[in-house]
Amino acid sequence: MDPFEYWLVLAAVAAAGLWGFWRGFRWWRWARLIEDTPTARVRSAAQGYAELIGTARRMAGVPVIAPLSKRPCTWWSFAIERRTRDSRGRAKWKVVNRRVSDSLFHLEDDTGRCIVDPEAAEVLPRATDTWYGETPMPVAGPPVHRGFRGFGNDYRYRESRIHDGDPLYAIGWFRTESNVLPGVIDEEVAALLRQWKRDAATLMKRFDTDGDGTLTLPEWERARAAAHEQVMSERRKHAAEPGIHVLERPRDDRPFLLAADDAEALARRYRLRGLGGLAVFLGATVALTWMLFHTVI
Prior knowledge:
Shape: elongated
Order of helices and strands: HEEEEEEEEEEEEHHHEEH
Structural class: alpha+beta
Distance between the termini: 16 Å
Number of strands: 14
Strand order of the largest sheet: 2-7-8-13-12
Strand content: 25-35%
Helix content: 25-40%
Oligomer: single chain
Largest sheet: 5 strands, mixed, barrel
Number of helices: 5
């Protein structure tokens, strides 16, 4: 090859080696985190980085529908590819549309529920479909009978989903939003007293003990004390309710993973990926050494 092609190939091999080194150790570190992070329960999980295992559940409200298959689910992603040809006339697939769900859903275990915010998560779903068609958007969902049906079709559709009821492994940043009400107590008391003043008859009936049609200073102080007690009672009742648990993207570089799989299988998958990345690095190192050695020779 000429010098330009030689240096181009050399740069490509070096880039592959660096990629393999970085991804290999990154995936190996993820496997170790999955193995070393203890599994927590939703109700008792500590604030911070946590591992949860449970079941995916839909949230109340507008249902989540996968755009291509039109199937209800808790999370989805899809890619639409169009058949093209390169400069040598060889067929290849080019992505023309890709989207990922950002809808919230629940992880449920035997102690409670946690809201999962899937933004920026690496998701490994259980349900994945691939089918083919002639239009930029499929006119029907995946076929009942599987098999290669891409011959003569210009578009390929890929869709992945997590369904309601699927087992769910999750590791990410866990936090609980407290039910303690914000605001100043005196301001709440004043607002409640203003509300009571709008119904003067009821206010007089409750606190005008001498029946003269006006509230004396001691009677007004009793009304203020009653309003204060009501505000404190409502705050205690609200604080006694369980907080809202949320699992989201970590605030550092640790992984945020959602998988319809168990922890052992997930750790094994990332360990194999790590070994694959390191194998790419070693292969690229050998290739670079061979190319540079033969250039010197």
